[in-house]
Design a protein that fits this description.
Blueprint: H1 2-15, H2 18-25, H3 29-36, H4 39-52, H5 59-69, H6 73-101, H7 106-132, H8 142-152, H9 155-164, H10 169-184
Helix pairs in contact: 1-4, 1-6, 2-3, 3-4, 4-6, 5-6, 6-7, 6-9, 6-10, 7-8, 8-10
């Protein structure tokens, strides 16, 4: 997976071939095709691995655990900021490569849309949990909260602030936590 991740970032989606990934990884192209079903499947696996985060427990499970065990909504949102600081440097650049390839590749465009929809579904679940616990501001419903979380965690915002403006991932994660706290939580 690390070979494909590195190749997509260094060469771009179009120039990265299954053959080049297979050769560098020391496996056959047939193995890559059987495992991932082609380049869209391979890039999907790269994104999925990036979004799992560091360590033996995937980030989404750590987030669920945080929400289940932490009563303070500010600490929950601060935890989400830490997850963003961990995950965005690995996942956002690949998503940006995919976004650019989606302009001319329908399969990648469909994949980008699917991943965006999955991220929105995850944010909707997070918003529902905040709402169920009575933590959302009265003027913010679940849909609005989910859309705000989806926007703040977008690869495009990462691109603007980290890649283009030079923020560190930690600064970015802190910004996300502060912005979501202000936008979502009741005083």
């Amino acid at each position: 997976m690390s070979v494909a991740h590195r190749r997509f970032l260094s060469d771009g989606y179009v120039a990265t071939t299954i053959a080049s990934v297979a050769a560098e990884a020391g496996v056959s192209t047939e193995t890559v095709y059987k495992t991932f079903g082609g380049k869209p499947g391979l890039v999907r696996a790269v994104v999925t691995a990036a979004l799992a985060g560091d360590g033996p427990v995937p980030a989404y499970q750590r987030s669920d655990s945080l929400q289940a065990n932490e009563p303070d909504p500010r600490e929950i949102v601060r935890g989400w900021g830490r997850f963003v600081a961990e995950l965005a440097p690995r996942g956002a650049p690949v998503m940006l490569v995919m976004r650019d390839a989606a302009v001319t590749d329908k399969a990648v465009a469909d994949l980008v849309e699917t991943i965006d929809n999955e991220r929105l579904a995850r944010m909707t679940d997070n918003a529902r949990r905040l709402a169920a616990a009575g933590h959302l501001r009265p003027d913010v419903d679940v849909v609005r909260a989910a859309e705000l979380m989806w926007t703040y965690t977008s690869p495009t915002l990462y691109e603007l602030l980290v890649i283009r403006r030079g923020w560190s991932p930690q600064q970015f994660g802190d910004f996300i936590a502060d912005a979501l706290t202000a936008a979502l939580l009741d005083a």
